[in-house]
């Protein structure tokens, strides 16, 4: 059960889970960077988590979450994303305001509360940033999506997720009226700096966005 872990341990478990989405195994330095701590501190924590059957470690190859560790991580992620959904949909927080609050709320251990929150919200599948919300059994519904930078031109696209939840990125998206669910199409690619000219289909507004921003947005191709 998640309640058997301290807040620090839960933060490590969640960090490892996210790092594993990009790599088969995770190195100590990767976790140290993600949590802004020292490698020695990570090593000490990994020993504790290994003793609790949360991580599996192989010398020189790094470590991964065990099956038990993945269940714990998905439970924490589920709570985080449900609380983000609640804060945006029910309390009218802006989507760039909810991450830090959800970081605190995700450590509430009551399964009954989380299940009732899920039901109250109508069992949402995705959080306000487009990330999938694991269900009570830890099942994650992944959507078919591609990065905007890789999407075809002159095709209706719908923003489905953001690559990270930094305040700077979310603030920029809000300034440009780009959000989850925004319909757009790519009008032109510029070779000089790889920026994109896009049109927002609801308002017909035309914007030029940087290659860096286009790499931070996931889109779905709209059904015909």
Mean pLDDT value: 93
The coarse overall form would be globular
Q: What would you call the structural class?
A: alpha+beta
Helix content: 25-40%
Query: Whole-Å distance between the termini?
Result: 45 Å
Structure, explained:
This protein is an alpha+beta fold and 224 residues long. It folds into two domains: 1-141, Winged helix-like DNA-binding domain superfamily/Winged helix DNA-binding domain (Arc Repressor Mutant, subunit A, Orthogonal Bundle), CATH 1.10.10.10; 146-221, SH3 type barrels (Roll). The chain is 40% helix and 17% strand. Strands 3-8-4-5-6-7 form a six-stranded antiparallel sheet. A hairpin with a 6-residue loop joins β5 and β6 (196-200). α4 crosses α5 (98-105).
Please tag this protein with its features:
224 residues; alpha+beta; Arc Repressor Mutant, subunit A; SH3 type barrels; two-stranded antiparallel ribbon
Produce a short descriptive summary.
By secondary structure, the protein is an alpha+beta fold.
Set down the secondary structure blueprint.
Blueprint: H1 7-20, H2 28-35, H3 39-51, E1 55-58, E2 62-65, H4 67-89, H5 98-105, H6 111-120, E3 146-147, E4 157-162, H7 167-175, E5 183-189, E6 196-200, E7 206-209, H8 211-214, E8 217-221
Helix pairs in contact: 1-2, 1-4, 2-3, 4-5
